[in-house]
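Researcher: I've been going back and forth with a colleague about how Membrane protein insertase YidC might be arranged in three dimensions. Neither of us has a model we trust, so I'd like an independent prediction. The organism is Streptococcus pneumoniae, in case that matters for your notes. Sequence below.
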Amino acid sequence: MGVKKKLKLTSLLGLSLLIMTACATNGVTSDITAESADFWSKLVYFFAEIIRFLSFDISIGVGIILFTVLIRTVLLPVFQVQMVASRKMQEAQPRIKALREQYPGRDMESRTKLEQEMRKVFKEMGVRQSDSLWPILIQMPVILALFQALSRVDFLKTGHFLWINLGSVDTTLVLPILAAVFTFLSTWLSNKALSERNGATTAMMYGIPVLIFIFAVYAPGGVALYWTVSNAYQVLQTYFLNNPFKIIAEREAVVQVQKDLENRKRKAKKKAQKTK
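Model: Here is an independent structure prediction for Membrane protein insertase YidC. You can compare it with whatever you and your colleague have in mind.
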């Protein structure tokens, strides 16, 4: 699955979020209570109870923040798999670039050969592109359950945090802007160490924050708060566990060592020629 396919899937997920927002804001769903019988309602109410417990009678907003940190910490191994996959993909880029130069043709035969060779490289380097999508897919039910909880559970619908009514949209747009900013920072930091970027990568880096902003504008404030905290967590996680600046420094150090080795070989060769 290439970057373009990943962009399409991410856009589809973003569209799903927007549809979900529209459905919830139209008020077509009934309240969820402790007596609700179906499995999904019980799961939504269970999440709501966790948030209420984590609020420590201070604020539902505090509960959402701690709930977000809890979810992200529990999912840390999954996100780490994504980071490892991203790093392997970065390491594979020079070889992929060489293959694209080797098979520049647009005909079916050239494209098929290029795909085959790329798959060989990915297999050799242990790259599974689907690994980068697991965090998005796993978070979707969590976001949907949180969305439903804030829209359908009474004690969350009436919750407040600072200026925010967590069950309603943030009309000040502060949270949607913060959600978009932290989403951009998260994506930018994740892509910082890429040895090369294409149009699809750039489109993802700028397009996803726009989708998140639109989503957060119409979502309950509590969902926008979740997304803001989640991506702030992602920024810190990337910086400390997969620091792109460290990766760049390591890559440059390897390149420098190779250059020094080549220089020593050339000098030794010249010296050997002079002594003849």
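Researcher: What would you highlight for our discussion?
Model: I'd start with this: Residues 36 and 156 are 16 Å apart (CA to CA). After that, consider the following. The two ends are 56 Å apart (CA to CA).
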